Amino acid sequence: MTIDVTPDIVIPDGDISLSFVRGSGPGGQNVNKVASAVQLRFDLAGTAALSDAVKSRLRALAGRRLTDDGAI
């Protein structure tokens, strides 16, 4: 599965990872028991789908959301 951003930009499935985590906030009976939030990570440093100029702009826009290993 891929994500079509534009006709020229297609993000391959291997550049994205999903993980399920426990969400913060009120949860009633399920609080601290159920992984009810989804965390999506995009491997900005490792992707070949974007040009260097686009990667540079995304790094600037990501701010604190950019991890040390280059993921958003």
Sum this structure up briefly:
The chain has 72 residues and is an alpha+beta fold.
Treating each run of at least 4 consecutive H or I residues as one helix, how many helices?
1
What proportion of the residues form beta strands (DSSP E)? 15-25%
Q: Structural class given helices, strands, pairing? A: alpha+beta
What is the H/E string? EEEEH
Q: Please summarize the sheet with the most strands.
A: 2 strands, antiparallel
- Give the fraction of residues assigned to helices: 10-25%
**Which outline best applies?**
elongated
Walk across the major sheet and give the strand order. Answer: 1-2
Name the descriptors.
single chain, alpha+beta, two-stranded antiparallel sheet
Model description:
- The chain is of the alpha+beta class and 72 residues long.
- It contains 1 helix and 4 strands.
- It has one helix at residues 52-62; strands spanning 3-4, 10-11, 16-21, 37-42.
- The strands form 2 sheets. Strands 1-2 form a two-stranded antiparallel ribbon.
- It is elongated and about 45 Å long.
- The two termini are 19 Å apart.
